[in-house]
Amino acid sequence: MLFRMHVIQAVFKRNFLSYFSSVIGYLFIVAFVGLGSFLAFSPQFFGNNLANLDQLNQHFPVLLLFIVPAITMSAWSDERKQGTDELLFTLPASDLEILLGKYFAVLGIYTVALVFSLSHVVVLSLLGSPDLGLMFATYFGYWLCGAALLSAGLVASVLTSSPTVAYVLGAMICAVPVFIDRLAPNNRLLQGLSVAEQFRDFGLGMIPLGGVLYFVSLTALMLYLNLVFVSRRHWSGGPHRTPMGLHFFVRAVSLGLILIGVNVVAANATTRVDLTSERLYSLSSTTREVLEQTDPEHPIRIQAFISPEVPRDYAATRSTLVGLLRQFDQEGGNAVRVRIVDTDKFTDEADEARRYGIEPRDIQSERAGRIVQEDVFLGVVVTGGGTDSEVVIPFFDVGTPVEYELTRAVRTASHAKRLTLGVLRTDAKLAGGFDMQSFQSQREWQIITELKRQYEVKEVAPEDLATSKFDVLLAAMPSSLTEPEMRNFVDYVRKGGKTLVIDDPLPLFHMQLAPRLPKPRAGGGGMFGGQQQSPPKADNGEARQLCNLLGISWNSSETVWDTYNPHPEMSEAFKDFDVVYVAAESGGSMPFNNRSSVTDGLQEVMMFYPGEIKPVEGSKLDFLPLMRTSPNSFVLPWDDFATSNPFGMIQLLPVPKRKKLSGVEYVVGARVTGVPADADSSDKNAPKIDVVFIADLDMISNEFFMVRDKNWRGLKLDNITVVMNAVDALAGDESFIELRKRRAHHRTLTTVERQTEIFRTRQLDQALQAGEAADKQLAEAQQRFAKEIQKIQADKSLDERTKMIRVRTAQENERRRLEVEKAEIDNKKNKEIREFKDQSERQIRKIESGIRWMAILFPPIPALLLGMYVFSKRVREERQGIVSDRMVPKRR
User: Fold this and answer.
1) Which CATH fold topology does 285-413 show?
2) Which long-range contacts (CB under 8 A, 24 or more apart) does 340-347 make?
3) pLDDT one-digit tens code per residue, 609-633
C-alpha cells in the first residue's frame, strides 16, 4: 500500500488538536471570520443591493495572505525549534506520510475556520434570499484557494525554525500566485496563473474544470517542494551523501513547467458546472453555435471597458456582463479573445475606450445620502478576425439583454450571412425621411436600428415591391397607403411575401398617423408655393383590401379597452389614456399563445389604444391568435374616446366610465397563414400567405426602448421582443428567439428594502403633496387673473377699445406676477421636497448602518463563544489538579 492511513491519521490528530488546545487558534478563526464579514458587508454591498458575497470575493485572495501563514507558520518551524523533528523522522513513517498528515491537519484547521464563516450565508439569508447554488460554488472556491495556499505556507514553515519568520515567508510565497496577474495585466499566461483570476468563476456560481485543475496543480507543486525540503537530510551534506540540490531543483522546475503547460491546455476547456438557480452564466445553444462558427485562424476579439464600481442599479448588469464575457472566452477557445479592462475616467483605458466610440454614461446616483454624478463605462467593442468589421455596443443599460447583444455582435463581426428585411415606405417613415407637415427630417425609428444589428435592412417603395426580394417585409401603418400603393402591397402579400403588419386605430405617440385622418399635405408645388392636396388613403384608411385578403376583420374606428392593471402604482401616470396589458397572469385563457415561437414564454406587453383582430366567417386561412387581452375587456367606438378634424388634429376625450364587461378576450395580435381564397388550393405550388398582424403601432415606438433599457419603474415588458420574434419567425431564422426570452433574476436584499420602503414611500407621498399644493396655488392665481378679466369684460361703462387695452395691461401685469409667484411656489416646493428627502435618507442610512454593523459583528460570535468555552474548560481542568492549600486565596 502506498500510504498507511493510520500513520497519516496519527500525525493529523497530533497537529490538528494541538492547534485548538490553546485560545490562539480560536482567535485566529475569530479574526478570519471578523475580517471576512467586514469586507463582505461593506457600504458597497448595500449599494449593490444583491444578496451575494461579491465584495468579499474581490478581497478574499488577499485575506488569505494574512490567515494562511498564521495557520502554517508553526507546522514545521515549531518542530525544528523544539528539536522534535528528529524524533518525528525516526518514527516508522515515511516523509510523505508525515507531510500529508501535517497538510491535512492545516487543511482541517482552515476548513473549520471556513465552516464558522458560513455565518456570512446566515446573514445573507436574514437580509434576502441568496442563491444556495451560488453560495456552494463560492465556498468551494474559497476552500480550493485556501488548500492551494496552505501548501505554499508549509514550504515557508519548513525553511526556518522561527514561526515569525515562517509567517513572513509564507505571506511572501503566497503573494506570488495572488499578485502575479498585476505584473502584466495584458499577458494572458500570467493572468491565467493568478489565484484571483482562477477563483472568479467560482464567485459567479460556476465550478470550472480549469479552475479546479489549477488549484490542484498548485497544491501538488507546493507539496512536492515540501517533500524535497523535508527529505533533504538524505541527499545534502555529509561524507556519504551525494549533493543533489541541483538535481531536485531541475526536477521541481520541470514539474512546475509541466503543470503550467497542463493548465494552459486546460484553460481552453469549456467544461464547467453552473450552479446558479437561474443558470445565469450558462450560454444558450444559440450562442454556442455562433461561437462554433467563428474561425480560429481569424479570431474574434471582444474588448470590454467596464468601470470597477458602478451605482446600485447597474451592479447586476455589470456582474452578468463580466460573467458572460468569461464564458465567451472559455467557450470560444482560440476563436474568441476576450479582454476585460477596468476603466476609470481620466485614465489611459478611458482614452482607449473613447477611440472605439465608447463614452462614459453620466449616471445620477445616491451615496451616503448625497446625490452624485458618476461616469460609468459599460461598453463592448467586437472586432472581426482578419477584417475591419467592428461592432460597438456603447453601453449596457440595466434592461439590456446582455447575452443576446453579445451573441448578435459576435455573429455580425464574424461576417455570417445575414437575411434581408424590407421596410415598406409608409407615412410612419420607420426608416426616416422628410416630414411634409413639419418640414423637418426624421430620424429612423429605434426598432430599425435594432433590426440592422441582425438583418440587412432596405427601405422599399410600394411600387417597387413586385421587383424586390426580401426574406421578410415590415409594413407599419399600411392603412396610410394610397389606392395604387395598397394594390401593390396586397399583391405582394398574395404572392407569398412573408410580412409583419403593424397597424393601429390610434397611435398615441404618432396620432397624425391615425387611419381616420387624411394623409398629410405634400409640401411645395402650387403656383404660390403652397401645399398640394395629398391623394386619399385607400379604403378611407380602413385597409379593407388587405383585411379581405387575410380573411380578418379589423376596424380602424374602434379600440380595445381593458380594466386589468397589474401595475396599480402607475394608474395616476396613465389615468387619461387607454392602456392595455397583455400579461401571462391576466387570468385569460391564453394571453400569449405558447404554440407559437413568436409569443411562447413572454410575460407582459403594454399597448395603447390597440385594435381588435378577428377572423371573418367562412375564411379558409389559418388564424392563430398570438396575443389576447384579459376577460375584463370591452370595445369602444372612436367617438367615445376621441374627436378629430379635417386638419389632422385629434383631441382625446376623458376616459369613459367603465362599460359593461363582455367577458370576451380580444385578439390584438395574430398570425394568418394559408392559400389565398382566389388561388387554386389543389395546386401544391400555389403561393401561401404568411402574415403576422399586430394591431398597435405604439408598442414599437422609441419610448419602449427607453422602458426596456432603463428598466423604467421596474417594468419587464416584451414589446420589443415580440416584434423581433415575429420578424425572425417569418424569416425562418428562430435562433435568437429563445435567447431573447432569457431573463436574469438577481436576488436583492429584501429585508433592507422592506425596512426602508416605508421611508421611500413617505418621501414620494410628501413630494406629491408638495406638488399638489403648488399646483393648487398656481390654479388659484390663474383663477384670480380670470376673474379680473371677466370683471373688465363685464364693465359696461368701457368701450371695446378701452376694454382691449385694459385686458392687455392686466395680462401683462398678471403674467409678471404669475412668474414671480410661480418662482416662489417652485422654490418653496423644492425646499420642502429636499427637506423631506433629507429626512428620509437619514432614516434609511441609519437603518442600513445598523444592519451593516449587525452583519459585521454577528459572524465572529460563534467562534468567539466556542473559544471562550474551551478556555474556561481548560482553566477548570488545570485547577482540578491543584491542591487546595497551594491555590492563591481569594481576596476578601
Assistant:
1) Glutaredoxin (3.40.30)
2) 340/304, 340/306, 341/303, 341/304, 341/305, 341/306, 342/306, 342/307, 342/308, 343/305, 343/306, 343/307, 343/308, 343/377, 344/307, 344/308, 345/375, 345/377
3) 999 999 998 888 999 999 999 998 8
